[in-house]
Amino acid sequence: MFLADMLNRKLKLPTAAEALPGRATALPTAETHFVNGQPLKGPYPEGCESVVLGLGCFWGAERKFWTLPGVHVTAVGYIAGLTPNPTYQEVCSGMTGHNEVVLVVFDPAKVSLEKVLATFFESHDPTQGMRQGNDSGTQYRSGIYVTGAGQQQVAEAARSAYQDALAKAGVRRTITTEILEAGPFYFAEAYHQQYLAKNPNGYCGLGGTGVSCPLPTGVAATA
């Protein structure tokens, strides 16, 4: 019974009264990207945009995006929770409300947000609620965290397009991806950054539905 209660607890977001207190200072993290050498916290080139994406364990998720042409830099961290400056262990407890996510900084002249989101939907199963594959908990939920109304519209169109693609493929499940305005993004600890570049045989944890995500009608794949 105790184990079942723990598992059920991890599938529910905590209330503000339940959430861990956290800390006032940011956790130390890496200064530069292990693969491309770009500064994780910027400054980023003029014209770049950023979006934050949650699609399961962030080790495998991050690699999907640093290999995408047009992406300037990526970093892993935590978003959409209640606890300030949480640690990885605190996030995994289910008592911070955060999602494990990837910050994707990209040049829209080289790769569109639509293409970034197509990669997002094709790289995991966005119908699983508070889990991804064998990984279970609120930190593994599917999420798109946007900056501004324009990104919100693109994200909602991409979600609808992929829901239609799933239906046409005979997948009768509803997408559970949350689309929210990006709040505070907390960079994860240094050892998590670009983890699979440092540990090529490390755990990835990503799966997918095998269904391609079409770009919304009239949207080009780049720019």
From TrEMBL:
It comes from the Bacteria. Residues 51-204 form the Peptide methionine sulphoxide reductase MsrA domain. It is an enzyme of class 1 (oxidoreductase). GO terms for biological process: cellular response to oxidative stress. This is Peptide methionine sulfoxide reductase MsrA. Has an important function as a repair enzyme for proteins that have been inactivated by oxidation. Catalyzes the reversible oxidation-reduction of methionine sulfoxide in proteins to methionine. Keywords: Oxidoreductase. Belongs to the MsrA Met sulfoxide reductase family. The keyword Oxidoreductase applies. It catalyses: L-methionyl-[protein] + [thioredoxin]-disulfide + H2O = L-methionyl-(S)-S-oxide-[protein] + [thioredoxin]-dithiol; [thioredoxin]-disulfide + L-methionine + H2O = L-methionine (S)-S-oxide + [thioredoxin]-dithiol. It comes from Methylobrevis albus. One of its GO terms (cellular component) is cytoplasm. GO terms for molecular function: peptide-methionine (S)-S-oxide reductase activity. Its EC number is 1.8.4.11. PANTHER family: MITOCHONDRIAL PEPTIDE METHIONINE SULFOXIDE REDUCTASE. The active site is at C57.
